[in-house]
Amino acid sequence: MTQYPALAMMIDGEPVSGGGRRRHAVINPATGEAIGHLPLAEAADLDRALAAAARGFARWRKSTAAERAAVLEGAARLLVERQETVARNAVLEQGKTLPEARLEVMMVVGLFRFYAGECQRIYGRTLVRPEGQRATVTHAPVGPVAAFAPWNFPIGNPGRKLGAPIAAGCSVILKSAEETPASALAVLQALLDAGLPGDVAQAVFGVPDEVSRHLLASPVIRKLSFTGSTAVGKHLARLATDNMLRTTMELGGHGPVLVFADADIERALDTVVPHKLRNAGQVCVSPTRFLVEQRVFDRFAAGFAERAAAFRVGDGLDPATQMGPMANARRPEAMERLIADAQGAGARLLTGGERIGNRGFFYAPTVLAEVPTSAAIMNEEPFGPVAILNPLPDEAAMIEEANRLPYGLAAYAWSEDARRQRRLAAGLEAGMIGLNTTMIAGADAPFGGVKWSGHGAEDGPEGLHACLVTKTVHEG
Ligand code: NAD
Q: In 10 A of CB 42, how many CB atoms?
């Protein structure tokens, strides 16, 4: 049985806790009980982290690509060795199933390995100039990064926030979600144990608005990287303007899924239902609005509800569990509000629509049908295990509905018609599109959205370049 670890911030390579600091209780979402206490940063802690980050950047920007690659490779190896412990702690603090948490560790391993290679390919170029003259374009690390990661992927999000800046030669101060600190600390510890200097990457926790205001107001910080809701993202983007920070914003979504009559409906259902219920729907690219061509609607809805109702919900550590609890008390409350509102607006409840048990934050897989556009859930990211199924007459109406919202993160479509697939790829307003697949991410693929879903990408060469600035030197 895993023991949940003692928690401390990591500032300038040292664990920091106690000393009369405020504390945050970490809750196991499967029981609702506290499993640990997290120290929260005071202003002096943040100032210490900023001073270290400035020092760390001065040091790390001079590192060779091979040194950075060795750290990332070493951390990847350590995370493979520590996979089971890291994954179990993530289940204890976040609720997802153990297989999902294990995969999340491997996602970070893959990303660190990718960046270990990619950081050795930060090429510049030489411009054509008359003989005797020269102009070169080079890429330099942007500087110390303030990175904010949410609780839904407690291992993967910190991995993204740390991997790219470290590969680029930046220093990072990471504030991961206070709900899931052990996972973030484990990712950082793997990097430190692999030889990363303690002033290059640090972890602080605190009252989120206090920490973000303090860090973003400092002249030390040169970049903001945020993953979370659009509302908080807009607030942080405003703060980042004062110091003209570079930004990578990975914000909310409201994933449309267009299902056409010419699709392989059974394959689509077998793929999209588990994808919808992954991490209890608390995924920014979760498929949410299923826009189904009228003539296959009844079949699709019946198949969806049947599969969702059969999903086994329980403690993420129980091997029989297919979906764990929601991550915190706010989520089932949001589900109750959104689902009651939708039913009040005339939606049909096909399955679920209620909490499970009176311990922890369990909510039943829920399917709503024929939900009017006026319902809050048609406009607000539900971030939970609820699918909205609506019939639509044709492709044009489906694309129009898919693009109706200001979000543009992930969109999915199921159709066997190759010409239609090309029209959808061109017409859907989203940063990531899955055609007959839900696999829309990978270490080598840019992950990010358009419109209110944010800007800039993580992962892939794009994620690395988001941590670099361009410098052109002209020699006469
Ligand atoms: P929230 O919007 O308050 O917080 C979202 C994340 O931002 C959390 O990790 C939180 O710690 C952080 N945060 C909040 N205020 C901050 C601040 N001033 N400075 C820095 N970080 C701050 O609410 P929540 O209840 O945690 O989540 C609610 C909604 O957030 C969800 O419904 C979902 O829409 C969105 N969300 C999105 C993602 C994602 O992957 N894009 C992840 C988690 C939550």
A: 16
